[in-house]
Amino acid sequence: HMATSERKVSQSGAGSAISGQQQEQEEGEVWREVFEWEVGFPVEEVWQLTSDFGGMHKWAPTLLASCAIVEGTPQQPGCVRLAQTHPPNPSHAREKLLDLDSASHKLSYKVVGSSVPFFVGLTPSFNLIPTSPSSTKIVWSYVMQPLSSIDQPSLRNIVLTSLYEVCVKDLLHTLCSRHKNA
């Protein structure tokens, strides 16, 4: 007796239940990308450079003309950095530090403002994993709510080629030149 009444309910509510599930899936869907590089330097040395949230221009000078903390306490979650790229196509991003953990060599941040609209909301995570005493794996990932203005492969390509790859190349160059000058 109860089974039939339950079945009736599910049939009559089937349309709304299905559309509700689809909406939930869409709301819950995120774009997630993970990129990895191996560098021949000890993890502490790489972290010393990359963990300075307001000093990214020091190790990524090709990408960034300047980078500075404009809100909050440097190195504390909640602080915001303003990063600006070079002319002739200057762009800027305001990025909020979400978490910085020196023990696990990990930091995460969120783009809270940008002259490039589809970067707003991008939430990268930067993690260093020691693979030997003298080498480190960089794991730079991001999550992003799906956008209508750009598709996932295009966003992935832009982030990888115009941001992450440029920065990692710069980082290697910076680390190498430190060793030459040491």
Automatic annotation (TrEMBL):
Region Disordered, annotated ranges: 1-25
InterPro entries: LFS, Polyketide_cyclase/dehydratase, START-like_dom_sf
Low complexity bias: start-end ranges: 10-23
Protein name: Lachrymatory-factor synthase
